[in-house]
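HOLO CASE FILE
Compound: cytidine-5'-monophosphate
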Amino acid sequence: MTLIIGGGIAAYKSLDLIRRLKDRGIHVRCVMTRAAQQFVTPLTAGALADERCYTDLFDAQSEFDAGHIRLARDTDLIVVAPATADLMAKMAQGHADDLATAILLATNRPVLMAPAMNPLMWANAATKRNVAQLARDGIRFIGPNSGEMAEANEAGIGRMSEPLEIAAAADALLRPPQARPLTGKKILITAGPTHEPIDPVRYIANRSSGKQGFAIAASAAEAGADVTLISGPVDLDDPPGVQMIHVESARDMLAQVEAALPADIAIFAAAVADWRVAHAGDQKIKKTATGIPPLALIENPDILATVAKRRHDRPKLVIGFAAETENLIVNATLKLARKGCDWIVANDVSPATGVMGGDRNTVHLITRMGKQTHVDSWPVMTKEEVADALVAKIVSTIGQQPA
Ligand code: C5P
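Model generated. Tokens follow.
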């Protein structure tokens, strides 16, 4: 593939992107705009890519055979990272006054842009117009993300997506359609614990790490699905290529899940706290001589059951998790019926298994067909392998259903 590096401070991340793409076995050929060379050198990019970096439209070494046309066609994907406001404006207008824009105008290959700019430039009406035009022209986008900018004290939307995210998106585009069997399917996934406030500094939580739900999100995204991952507080990086929504409490999680509907498939891997404090304090509760304050608890909404019972926009496939410490299959099967889901992933979380927070999981997949249930017991696997197996099962099931 061809990587066009535009002239922005995020260009330094594109050097890391070259390595990330190579890690995935992707051959990278680099092109740099003149402005990009103010930030990183063609020599570095060329050394990382193992091939000279192209910079000039009128380059005696490459232009004798209409080099820009060859560079535009002799590739299976073009990634522009960072895509600056100026580069996008030129492309939207069809300019071709340097090598990068000439390649973009001459190509008939898919183009993925990773914009990076100051938040005010991203929010500007002209940029919005250009991005909308490019999207209409079939250009794909990744990011920008929100976060801190290079300029001191500036934050907002405009940060380039992380190299890992861009590499995953590029890899997905390079794979043949049969390797992305969930293309066009929207999947909603919950993960992690919820934090239920007691007061502004204390909360009730549980030991979920979020690893299993995040692994499922990554695996579904790799299979081409449009994934929305709604997670409680976890210590994990956002999986590449998913729409990430961070929440704190069960009620926040339910609100975001409902806002993200409709979806084709919903997977509820979150360990939602069953109860919350009835009257969370606005101020930190003080230790007093009168003793320990009573904490009245009330029940949280059951997100899985709420979605599984929706009438008009119930996802076609609703999958729950049942973490049990005893009578695993019996309890999980009862839960499947009680919550109204189609499948339940039952796992033994008794302390001896080390599942909580660990990297491995032993699960049984219980599926329902009308009144009949079927149990599939899987061997001990890593959480990534469980995720891949679940996604494979989804693919084979969805494949058998009429669209
Ligand atoms: O009842 P229990 O918590 O064991 O059920 C587990 C399943 O239900 C999981 O899929 C979990 O994500 C979901 N759940 C939920 N909302 C709750 C409690 C559980 O979505 N309040």
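CASE NOTES: Residues 383-400 form the longest helix (18 residues). The chain has a mean pLDDT of 91.
CLOSED: yes
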